[in-house]
Design brief:
single chain; 124 residues; mainly alpha; 73% helix
């Protein structure tokens, strides 16, 4: 009988935890999309500047830069079709998303390691 009084608190804690994880995922997704758009813009601006300067750019290099600009686009076409499995257990990351996340995690880890080395080498 005493355990029944804790049920609302349990439900609230699960709901808040779920909300926190969802918001964290949304923030990471938004940051990744912003970085991708920024990279695409910088690639296209560089290409535009080279064209305006009158530089002759080989077609292969233009094609490579276009491919680089398109690499960050989502390959997921069925965004509107969400099933219960996906609602309950979450969406599976694509290989491209996983590689992007791993790359940024590695960069963050390298930055932290570099900062630790700088602080350990600094005189006290």
């Amino acid at each position: 009988m005493a355990s029944r009084r804790y049920i609302p608190e349990l439900i609230y804690s699960v709901a808040f935890s779920s909300l926190a994880v969802h918001l964290l995922f949304q923030r990471r997704t938004a940051e990744m999309q912003q970085r991708q758009v920024g990279a695409q813009i910088s690639i296209l601006e560089g290409l535009k500047a080279r064209f305006l300067a009158g530089e002759r750019i080989p077609d292969a290099q233009v094609a490579r830069l276009k491919k680089l600009g398109r690499e960050g686009e989502s390959c997921r076409e069925d965004e509107d079709d969400i099933g219960w499995k996906e609602v309950l257990f979450g969406r599976q990351e694509t290989e491209m998303e996983r590689e992007g996340t791993e790359k940024w995690d590695r960069r963050d880890l390298e930055r932290v390691q570099q900062e630790i080395q700088e602080h350990s080498n600094a005189p006290s």
